[in-house]
Amino acid sequence: MKRERFLSEFKSIIVIITCAFCFTCEDHTTNPYQNSEVELCYRKLDSNSRWQIFTNNRFGNNQKNISNNPFDDAYNPLWTPDGKYIAFRYDRENAGGCDIYLYDNTNNSKINVTSDFEIGESAYPILWSPDSEKLIYHYHKMGEPFYYYIMNSDGTEKQILFETESVYFIDFSDHGNSLLYTKDELLYRINIATKSSELILDFKENSVYPAWVDGYDPINHTVLCHEDSSSWNGGATFLIKRINLTTKKSDTLVIAENGIKFLRPVFSREYSKVAYIERDYENDISKIILLDDSEKTELNRLTDENESYSFYNIEFSPNNTYITYTLSENIPGEVMRSYSYVYVLNISTKETRLIDQAEDSHWNPLINF
């Protein structure tokens, strides 16, 4: 009797372990590029004082140099939406110009997608299409004007998108068939296939001061904006709003109190919340604020009185559990010297974790937390 009971319990344990193993395998197959140890990418100075692109996890204990060239600098890390590649700019040592490389997250290899460039030609990545198949990049050849190009992810079919650099890209729209951009306080949409543009919005009709677009919500077809004025310092703003591109209706989300200015507003991943930096310039106090349906929550105090810092953009993790940000500290007594640090902030617990002495951090879009 005891033997039969033991065999029955043993079979049950085997079934549970087998089911767990199958579930794990199925999840890996569904997300072939997902890697729990590759949750962030950022740029960091190596021991040779060269900028390199690193990956890490959200605990900061699995850093890896993926550009890994002691003779060249690497900048502008940019994930593909499917999580397979990280695009980055790679300077050429003593050759003039720079190339765009892709780091393959599945096999740890690098691919030069601008290997056809000659000396004096330069490019860096700007924006991936939603299907990860096309990349917009900035292009320049010494002695010639600046351009914006679009190409396939393998570097083929390079085409001029704009023969100017005086445009600001917002995001793809229409399921990746069009692209939103601004120029001279005007919002346009360009069809990728035909290269034809149409005017969507004149910000001067909706704003007292010049307006700048910070994000696009494709679900509700709205843009996140801030109004600017020459009387406000450091690109700061006193007002954050949302504009519906269909109805042209403007909805003010928050207005700064006297002496307070805002920086770096950004949509959450599902577009229902907004995070931004609230800055008291008189007292050098800065905070990360979460705005949820007009309710303000202080997530973290970045600086206290008489501390001077500058900031990179803040970014929500894919499931809006965390925020990553960079603090660049100006060191007193060291001329033109600053140190940058990448942090991860848990939105629920408000716990902050130092990840690395680095900057310009971005989340892997496939990490499910």
Strand-helix topology:
Blueprint: H1 2-30, E1 40-45, E2 51-56, E3 64-65, E4 74-79, E5 85-91, E6 98-104, E7 109-112, E8 121-128, E9 134-141, E10 146-152, E11 159-162, E12 168-173, E13 178-183, E14 186-191, E15 197-202, E16 211-217, E17 222-227, E18 239-244, E19 250-255, E20 260-267, E21 273-280, E22 285-292, E23 295-303, E24 309-311, E25 315-316, E26 322-330, E27 338-346, E28 352-356, E29 359-363
Antiparallel strand pairs: 1-2, 1-29, 2-3, 4-5, 5-6, 6-7, 8-9, 9-10, 10-11, 12-13, 13-14, 14-15, 16-17, 17-18, 18-19, 20-21, 21-22, 22-23, 24-26, 25-26, 26-27, 27-28
How would you describe the overall organization of this protein?
This protein has 369 residues and is mainly β. Among the domains are: 1-30; 206-307, no CATH class. It contains one helix and 29 strands. It has one helix spanning 2-30, and strands spanning 40-45, 51-56, 64-65, 74-79, 85-91, 98-104, 109-112, 121-128, 134-141, 146-152, 159-162, 168-173, 178-183, 186-191, 197-202, 211-217, 222-227, 239-244, 250-255, 260-267, 273-280, 285-292, 295-303, 309-311, 315-316, 322-330, 338-346, 352-356, 359-363. The strands form seven sheets. Strands 24, 25, 26, 27 and 28 form a five-stranded antiparallel beta sheet that branches. Strands 3-2-1-29 form a four-stranded antiparallel beta sheet, with no helix packed on it. β10 (146-152) and β11 form a beta hairpin. The longest helix is centred in the N-terminal third of the chain and has 29 residues, at 2-30. The protein is globular.
